[in-house]
Amino acid sequence: MPDLARKTENPESETGSAIRNVLVVDDSRAQRLLLIRALTRQGYYVTEAGSGKEALAACEQDEFDLVLSDWMMPGMNGLEFCKAFRNLRRERYGYFILLTSKSEKGAVAHGLDEGADDFLTKPVKPDELLARINAGDRILRMERQLTETNRQIKAKMDEISALYEALDRDLIEARKMQQSLLREPHRDFGTAEVSLMLKPCGHVGGDLVGFFAAGEGKLGFYSIDVSGHGVASALLTARLASYLSDGAPAQNVALTPDQDGQFVHRPPSEVANLLNILMIEDMETDLYFTLLLGFLDLKTGQLDYTQCGHPNPALIDAAGRVRFLEGGGLPIGLIPDADFTQQQIRLRPGERLLFYSDGFTECENTEGIQLEEAGFARIIEDNAGLEDADLFTALVWDLDLYSGGRDFSDDLSCALLRYKGSQET
Q1: Among residues 403, 408, 413, which one has the least CA distance to residue 375?
Q2: What is the pLDDT of residues 61-101, one digit of tens each?
């Protein structure tokens, strides 16, 4: 087994040297002693080995910063040992200097190919030995600084990755919670049916659709599109859902008790005005939203609605033809004391009214051309014979074809009202 040479105090704490443990390999005892004397005088820990086999055994027990190995040795020569040394599993790079009497360029190139870092010509001069060691020390320090930097970067990346994974889990739960706002995607009211669809473009989105009982024989339904698509938009949709709740009429800003204590709906323009006041005066946010809110008389088919910056509703007649109801209005949450108007239409039996977000009409194809109302009308008419849930699926499918299969850049949502007509005889 190799002998452990004289030890000195750890110089790394004093000099900042990257080289501390040195292995000297030479079949000549006299040559080893000369090298050991020079190295220990400089404060290095030195281990000696008389053959390549002994040196390899020493490297399996200890991790040397620097190896000084003779080239010409019986058995495993220095070049073979260098190649085996490079194949060892090490935490840090080891600097390898071959000691040789060879001076041919071809031999030096071969040694470099096998993994040697530098060469010293025998007999070794002490000043040249120290110069080569100092050169190796500079390289090792840079390598270890780079390794430490990479370690720190990896640690930060692992930390960031863990944070992203936690955020991703939270967003998945937030998506589930947002989808739970659509507790009932379809309801049959006898003379009318309402179907809802909500498809965020990310984990969560800023669209919201819903319906609620709006008093005796009245149905309220709405489509909302909050600016943005992220968490802040999703939080606002959750708050708006509480303002238009179907299960808590006393909390629903669209409803008010009459003289008998029964809840009836306010005019849709008044509801828009109340929501605008809430956004501007009670919520500290730069967000705003567009809205379509309608109230249907289930007996007569009369629909009163207000349009606040939302896309024009699409009226689908019994034959499957589409026309858009012209409207407009200002979004909610932008301008104090904004004036909101309302319109009125009477639905005929078999007609359907579609409230939708601009994720449909503003969808772009691969050339950057938006679908717009005309294109959306074609898609609706192509699928008008389908039932409501299947119609939603077909609309999204055809929109995907139009976009060229790219991810949608905006949320998609629909509220579809089908009026069947009075059941009275």
Answers
A1: 403
A2: 999 999 999 999 999 999 999 999 999 988 889 999 999 87
Overall domain count for the chain: 2
Nearest Cα to 420, choosing from 223, 258, 188, 244?
188
Q: For residue 254, is it within any domain?
A: yes
Q: Is the pLDDT of residue 181 over 90?
A: no
pTM to 2 decimal places:
0.65
- C-alpha span between 412 and 309 (Å, rounded): 16
Q: Which sign does the torsion angle of CA 240, 300, 188, 317 carry?
A: negative
Do residues 278 and 243 make contact, with C-beta atoms less than 8 angstroms apart? yes
Query: What is the phi-psi region of residue 75: left when phi exceeds 0, alpha when psi lies from -120 to 50, beta otherwise?
Result: left
User: Could you say which of 149, 171, 201 is where a domain stops?
Assistant: 149
The full DSSP string for 236-254 is: HHHHHHHHT-SS-GGG-TT
Instruction: Give the model confidence (pLDDT) of 8-40 as tens digits.
Output: 344 443 446 788 899 999 999 999 999 999 999
Q: Tokens 């009125």 label which residue? A: 344
Expressed as residue numbers, the domain containing 66 is 12-149
Among candidates 417, 198, 181, which has minimal Cα distance to 297?
417
Question: 6 in helix, strand or coil?
Answer: coil
What is the C-alpha separation between 26 and 6, in angstroms, rounded? 17
For residue 66, give the 3-state DSSP assignment.
strand
Same domain membership, residue 88 and residue 225: no
Beta carbons of 116 and 96 less than 8 angstroms apart: yes
Does 3 have pLDDT greater than 50? no
**206 vs 410: CA distance, rounded Å:** 9
Q: Which two tokens stand for residue 380?
A: 């609706």
Q: How far apart are CA 173 and CA 179, in angstroms?
A: 10
